[in-house]
Specification:
Number of domains: 2
Order of helices and strands: HHHEEHHEEHHH
Distance between the termini: 27 Å
Strand order of the largest sheet: 1-2
Shape: globular
Largest sheet: 2 strands, antiparallel
Length: 202
């Protein structure tokens, strides 16, 4: 069962928070024109609001947050997906602290018992961290496949995670733990999506 585009955009905004159009579109896996059209319709319905200006963007209203919770719960239970999503979420929770530790290891390293910022001057150290990230990513992809089999909208996460990891491998080192579309940021959105989908408070 595919998620309607309006709900996908609404729920994406719920998971990523206040954001500009381009970021909402990327996170939703939709084109910007379609995303903007859905956002405008949602705004007319009073579910989202737009703040203009250089630092502006789109955000949920209280009514939008309530509508998202109601519709996402109906999608989850209407398709009988709750048991599968719950089981996959439990497996995700096993991986989550490992990912956080790896991001910390990527940003900071301990030398002679002293923590210091990782300047990425030690290629061997970075390669060891990335090898562990690759292993975690393989396991995370399996969890995402289980989620996508239950609710297809989860299928966009392994693509986004893989793209971010590919950028790191290509030398864009900030794509692991820094920036709005980094591996860590997409992982955080997946975590938030699972919590919101299952109605679990953070």
């Amino acid at each position: 069962m595919s998620t309607p585009a309006d709900l996908l955009v609404l729920h994406t905004l719920r998971c990523i928070g206040f954001a500009e159009l381009a970021r909402v579109a990327r996170a939703a896996g939709l084109g910007e024109p379609e995303t903007e059209s859905e956002l405008i319709d949602l705004a007319v319905a009073g579910l989202v609001t737009r703040t203009p200006g250089a630092f502006g963007g789109w955000g949920l209203t209280d009514a939008g947050r309530a509508a998202d919770a109601e519709r996402i719960a109906a999608e989850l239970d209407g398709g009988g997906a709750r048991p599968a999503v719950t089981a996959a979420f439990e497996r995700f929770l096993v991986l989550n602290p490992e990912l956080l530790d790896l991001c910390s290891a990527w940003q900071m390293r301990v030398t002679d018992g002293v923590g210091e910022v990782n300047d990425h001057g030690d290629a061997g150290y970075d390669a060891r961290v990335l090898a562990r990230v690759d292993d975690l990513h393989r396991r995370a992809t399996t969890v995402c496949a289980e989620l996508a089999a239950a609710l297809p909208r989860f299928g966009r996460y392994p693509d986004r995670l893989g793209a971010a990891l590919g950028r790191v491998r290509a030398g864009d080192l900030e794509w692991l733990a820094d920036g709005m579309d980094s591996y860590h940021s997409v992982w955080f959105q997946l975590h938030e999506d699972l919590l919101a989908t299952l109605g679990i408070p953070r």
